[in-house]
Amino acid sequence: MNITIPSGITSIGNTAFAYCQSLTHIEIPNVVTSVPNELVYSCYSLKSIKFNGAITSIGASSFRDCYSLTTIEMPSNSEITSLGNYAMSGCRSFTDFSIFKDVTSFGTYCFQNCYNLKEFKLPNGLTSIPNYMFNNCYSLESVDISDTVTNIGN
User: Considering the entire predicted model, what is its pTM?
Assistant: First the structure.
């Protein structure tokens, strides 16, 4: 099942598509700039998301437990500055974490159980790595920590 949200929609509420087990693709209109909490939480079959507008924040558990998610497509002018708690937790198939290059605030457990995360470059300007950010990231081989980081959580 694919969902394309019409361009007249300007905001999407929390858990709008959570637990949609047969959802494989969702396309978000260009006027939506922030991803709500638990947008597609536990959509196990979801493979791709396309954002047509610049995204600035991703809420808590937005993509949590989307086991099949491999692609998040967004415009080059997106500057995501914050990811909520558990935002990408459980995204076992996701590998392209370069879209988070401008983030200045990560939530706890942000990338927990991202089994295919191999490397991560923390953005310049980041001052703190939250608790359990890379918990159970079995394939993680390297994390590039910038000089601006002064605190590393549990």
Answer: 0.93
